[in-house]
Every structure is written in structure tokens, then in C-alpha cells.
Design brief:
This protein is of the alpha/beta class. About 60% of the residues lie in helices and about 5% in strands.
Length: about 625
């Protein structure tokens, strides 16, 4: 080894590019190289071999094959390991030899005695080779899924990235379960959350249903936020967060120009930071592809921001530019921006908004028809014919459904605002409202009135649009409390956890129950479960850009409102930093109930949270759900 290493160093220091002949040929290299596992020059030797490999006789190639496998399996130095992974990735070796390299990389990756980063780079090498042959991915996944959370944190962080990228190409629920497991390790949280977000992002791509797509994209958004929260700088996650916030707003009908302009400005700044943060030339191919995909997402987000304004206009001054540069490209976003061969969740969200605008604004529709008659662009004809067919179908159905083309509000809101729109649906919902109001208990009404009075000092609550969203969430939350205090486990099995004492239930039991109840009630808004952050449980309500979070906790010792505010208010109000300064803290009260659960009016209180440097207080409605209950006969 010493002779080979000395020759290599001498040649490199003299500025000469070493060759096989300089080192005595392949036979001399194999016989005299010895154990190169600790040499920093091993990668130079591999470079020399791979450069001339194809020109060598088959006998020499076979000798060098065994030698290269030995070098990989003896890797120790992490910098050398990285360089060798890059070299093998660019090396066009015969398939059977590449299989051996692949297995050797996996062997190094799972060798606990190797340096952590050497193992991580070897895992990277195995992923690169898995892309080149389908059968290798099965062994790669089998290895990745066996990684335990007890591995060194840095290795887990890198494993989460590799597993996430593999899962993006070959999705499996098993990969998600492993990523969730990695969330329990602080150093791996940001990477794991990012990859879970990517998994939900790609799920959204594949679905054809608007509701499912919105759910997947919203969930991805939450995971990207979790990734951001768990690291000092995560520009890629921040960019996805901004892009998806626009897309989710489109789905919910929230097209506020000020917010879209702000997001577009933040995206522009993030792009410059991202380019400085990421060295594109130094990325492996699989990360380079992700970089391109993220750039395409930014283009889509900016297109959505540009389209939002023109869809609200009755007609267009430069119709040709709008149609070709905004309307049709955004209508076919998966193909135009994301380089995908088929449409999916993106179109399921975007296309109905475009159709609704054309139905509502006849001037826009006239422009599109004129454009189709006078412009010869065959690549767009099929798309335009499809779009016009959908518009005609909506127009044909207008007399029977006068609110079908309402673009920015839920149809239920539209028919209540339009006195002339008397339909069976409007009548039914009016009766639902009337029946619920008539049958509301005095105690619940008093609690709602008390909360309303206390919240009127909140500037966000004084906004009519926000108040009209928060009030239903609050009312139904109080109705949830009332029903859970009324029901017994004999009549309603879902409340069994409220009577459970050994073991005591966890907050996710309350989360599932609350989510199921609210999801069945709030048809007009998005209701989503988030169970992220190593055990945090919450339920998110989102509508027209406004976001309300019900944070769920359990308390076994001190369940006074003073203690709950002290323990949990800071965290719960933190979610209000970028949105409505209103929230709900739902607490599973697991303290003793020797004297019964108490009156419902004692379970609810509005508290102020005053943050340093802020003029207006934030507000949190604390709702205690009595657990560890006793039946009346046990008291």
C-alpha cells in the first residue's frame, strides 16, 4: 500500500494526472495496494480504474471487479466514501458487477462499526444504484425498513432522506410508518417531517378527487411546517409551505389578493436564498431532480397568483396573453408546470375554479371561444374543447341550480344570501338551523353568550368573516362537550374512554372522538387531523384563509383553568402567530371525580394571552372534557 500511496501522492503533487501505467498496471495495483480502507487517496485510485475500465481486457476487468468490491466493503474514511459513491454512480459497469457494488454499499450502510457518515454515504450509493435496476429497490426497501430508531441520530437523519426519496418513487405505507418512528429522534425530526410531507404531496398528485387532494395537500403543508419548526433553516420546506398555501386557498375558495401578493413576494425572496443554499452541481441525481421539481412548483404557485386576479375580471384587455400564458397552462398544471404525464389532484383543485369563473363571467367565455376560432394551436385545442364542454354542462344546469357557479363561497352560504334561490337544499338547511336553535339547552346558550361577550375585545373576532367562521366551530365544540357529558358508555360506545381508569386514556382518544364529531358537522370547511411533533394532538379548521386550531391535551393532576393556562396557553397561542388570534384548548380532564363531573358551565372559560410587544391580546377558549367518569349509580 505504501508504494502505491507514495506514487499517487508524488504524481498528484507534481500536477500530473496519474494513470494505470504510472502505477504498474492493474496487476501491480491489486497485488501491492494492500488495505486502502484508511487511505485518503483511495478514491483517486478508483478514479484511475473507472476511467480506463472499458478499454481493459476482460481478464483484467474481472480482477479489478473483485478489487473494487473489496475497496467499497473496506471503506472507513467518510470523505473518501463520498467521492467513491460519486465515481461508482457515473461508472457504467456491467449489470452483474453493479449488483455486487449495490450489495456492498448496503453492507457498509448497515455495519454499526463503520463511521456514521461513511454508512450514510454508502446508503446514498445504494439508492443511486437502485434507480438503475428495478429489482434492487426491493432489497433497498427491505434494508431501509429494518433501520431502528436506536441508530445514531445523524445516521437516522440521512436514512430519513434516503427512505423519503425512495418512497417518492416507489410509494409504500411501510415507509411512512418508519418515518413516523424516526420522528421520535430530535436530530431526525426535520428530515422525517419533510419526507412525510413529500409523501402526502405525491399522494395529492395521484388522486382524482378534489376533497382527497385538498386533504393530502393540506396534510403535506402541516408536515412542511413541522419540518421548519424543528430546524434553524429549512428553505425547501418553507418554499413548499408557501406554494401549498396558495393551492389550498384555491381549493377552499380563498383568493384574497393581498395574501397572494404577500406569498408571491416571499416566494421570490426564498428562491434567491434557496439557490444560495443549494449547490446544484454538487447534488446527487436524485436530489437534483427534486430541486427541479421544487422550482416547477414555484412557477405553478406564481401562475396561480397571477390567475387569481384575471379570473375576477368581467373580461380581458389582452385575452390572448391571458388564455395562453395563464388560463390554459394553469388548467393543465401537472403537464405544463410539474412535467407529469397525467392529470390528478392539482387539476381536481384548480379546474373547477376556472370553470366556475367562465360560467359566471360571460365576457371571459366569449374571449375563449373567439381565441379558439382564430388561433391555430393544435396542442391546446383538445384542452380548450374539454374546458368549454365543462362550462357548457354547468351553464345547461344553471336553471335547476342557480348557485352552481359561485366561485369563492360555499353554495350553502350563497343560497342563504340569495333570497330568490329557494330550493329543497336551502329549505332543508334552514330547517336544520331552526331545529338546532329551538332545541339548544339554556346552559349551552348561556355559555355561548358568555364566550361571545368575552371575545368581542379581540380584533380578529370583530371581523365579521372571521367571527362567522369561529362561532360555528366554538358552538359545535360546546355541543360536543354537552353530548359527551350526557352520553354513557352503555348508550354510546365511542365515549368509553371517558370512563376508562386503568390505564388512563391518552389525548389521541379525545382527538379521534372530537374529529369524528366535528367532521360530521362542519361540511362548509376543511377539518383535518394533525398528529405530529412527537405526540402533539390537534384538529385544524380552515376556511377562506382563516385557520382555527383546537389543541388537545390531557391533565391528570391539576385541572384548574389557572393551571391549564399556565401549562398550555403559550403553546396553543403560538399557532396564532400567522393567522387568526383565536384558538381552542380542549383538555381531557383525568383528575378524580368522586363528586361527579360537575356542571357544564364550569367546564368552559375564555382566557387572554398577552404577548410581550403586542398591543392586542390573543384569546383561547379552554374547554374541559370530564374523563375518569363515574356512572350515577357509583356516586
Amino acid at each position: 500500500m505504501l508504494a502505491i500511496e507514495e506514487k499517487l501522492r508524488s504524481l498528484l503533487e507534481s500536477g500530473k494526472e496519474p494513470s494505470m501505467d504510472d502505477l504498474g498496471g492493474s496487476k501491480s495495483i491489486v497485488l501491492n495496494a494492500g488495505d486502502l480502507s484508511t487511505s485518503t487517496l483511495t478514491s483517486e485510485l478508483v478514479r484511475i480504474i473507472t476511467d480506463v475500465y472499458e478499454s481493459l481486457p476482460s481478464v483484467e476487468q474481472e480482477t479489478l471487479d473483485d478489487f473494487l468490491v473489496q475497496i467499497i466493503e473496506n471503506l472507513s474514511d467518510e470523505f473518501c466514501a463520498k467521492e467513491i459513491v460519486d465515481l461508482i454512480d457515473c461508472f457504467y459497469a456491467p449489470g452483474d458487477i453493479e449488483d455486487r457494488f449495490f450489495k456492498s454499499f448496503l453492507k457498509v450502510a448497515m455495519d454499526a462499526d463503520k463511521p456514521v457518515m461513511t454508512r450514510a454515504f454508502a446508503l446514498d450509493g445504494s439508492l443511486r444504484l437502485a434507480f438503475k435496476k428495478q429489482t434492487r429497490r426491493y432489497l433497498l426497501f427491505a434494508t431501509l425498513l429494518e433501520i431502528e430508531a436506536t441508530e445514531p441520530p445523524i445516521f437516522l437523519k440521512n436514512s430519513a432522506k434516503i427512505l423519503g426519496v425512495a418512497n417518492s418513487h416507489w410509494p409504500t405505507e411501510d415507509a411512512l410508518s418508519v418515518l413516523h418512528k424516526f420522528m421520535g429522534v430530535d436530530e431526525a425530526k426535520s428530515e422525517s417531517a419533510y419526507e412525510i410531507g413529500m409523501a402526502h404531496l405525491h399522494k395529492g398528485f395521484e388522486t382524482q378527487n378534489k376533497s382527497s387532494a385538498t386533504q393530502d395537500f393540506s396534510t403535506a403543508l402541516l408536515w412542511f411546517r413541522e419540518s421548519i419548526k424543528n430546524t434553524e433553516q429549512r428553505i425547501d420546506a418553507e418554499m413548499y409551505e408557501l406554494c401549498l398555501s396558495i393551492l389550498v386557498d384555491y381549493s377552499h375558495g380563498s383568493l384574497e389578493k393581498d395574501k397572494l401578493a404577500d406569498v408571491a413576494d416571499r416566494l421570490q425572496k426564498a428562491i434567491f436564498l434557496y439557490e444560495a443554499w443549494v449547490d446544484g452541481e454538487g447534488l446527487p441525481s436524485w436530489l437534483g431532480a427534486r430541486r427541479i421539481e421544487l422550482a416547477n412548483w414555484v412557477l405553478l404557485a406564481k401562475s396561480l397568483e397571477g390567475l387569481a386576479g384575471v379570473l375576477e375580471e368581467p373580461s380581458w384587455f389582452e385575452a390572448k396573453v391571458v388564455i395562453e400564458n395563464h388560463l390554459l397552462t394553469t388548467y393543465t398544471a401537472s403537464r405544463s408546470y410539474l412535467q407529469r404525464t397525467k392529470k390528478g389532484g392539482i387539476e381536481a383543485i384548480i379546474q373547477p375554479r376556472i370553470v366556475a369563473a367562465l360560467v359566471k363571467e360571460q365576457g371571459q367565455l366569449h374571449h375563449l371561444r373567439q381565441w379558439l376560432e382564430h388561433v391555430d394551436l393544435p396542442e391546446w385545442k383538445e384542452t380548450t374543447d374539454e374546458l368549454l364542454a365543462k362550462v357548457e354542462k354547468e351553464l345547461a344546469g344553471q336553471p335547476a341550480n342557480p348557485t352552481a357557479a359561485t366561485p369563492c363561497a360555499h353554495r350553502g352560504v350563497a343560497f342563504l344570501q340569495n333570497n330568490s334561490a329557494h330550493t329543497p337544499l336551502s329549505e332543508a338547511y334552514s330547517q336544520v338551523v331552526a331545529l338546532n336553535a329551538e332545541n339548544t339547552s339554556p346552559a349551552l346558550e348561556d355559555m355561548l353568550n358568555t364566550c361571545d361577550t368575552r371575545l368581542k375585545s379581540n380584533p380578529d373576532y370583530r371581523n365579521n368573516q372571521i367571527r362567522s367562521f369561529f362561532l360555528p366551530v366554538l358552538t359545535l365544540t360546546l355541543r360536543f362537550l354537552e353530548s359527551r357529558m350526557d352520553h354513557t358508555k352503555g348508550h354510546h360506545k365511542a365515549v368509553g374512554y371517558l370512563y376508562q381508569t386503568n390505564p388512563l386514556p391518552k389525548e389521541d382518544a379525545l382527538q379521534r372522538d372530537y374529529f369524528d364529531f366535528m367532521y360530521g358537522q362542519l361540511m362548509v370547511t376543511a377539518v383535518e387531523v394533525s398528529n405530529i411533533g412527537g405526540g402533539r394532538a390537534d384538529v385544524l379548521f380552515q376556511h377562506k384563509g382563516s385557520r382555527i386550531i383546537s389543541e388537545l391535551k390531557k391533565e391528570e393532576k391539576y385541572c384548574s383553568f389557572e393551571n391549564l393556562k399556565k401549562e398550555y396557553a403559550a403553546q396553543s397561542s403560538e399557532y396564532q402567530n400567522t393567522n387568526v388570534r383565536l384558538g381552542i384548548l380542549l383538555v381531557l380532564d383525568l383528575t378524580g371525580k368522586e363528586d361527579g363531573a360537575g356542571h357544564i358551565s364550569n367546564q368552559v372559560k375564555v382566557v387572554d394571552i398577552v404577548r410581550k410587544g403586542e398591543e392586542s391580546p390573543r384569546n383561547l377558549v379552554i374547554v374541559k372534557v370530564p374523563g375518569r367518569r363515574r356512572t350515577p349509580s357509583q356516586l
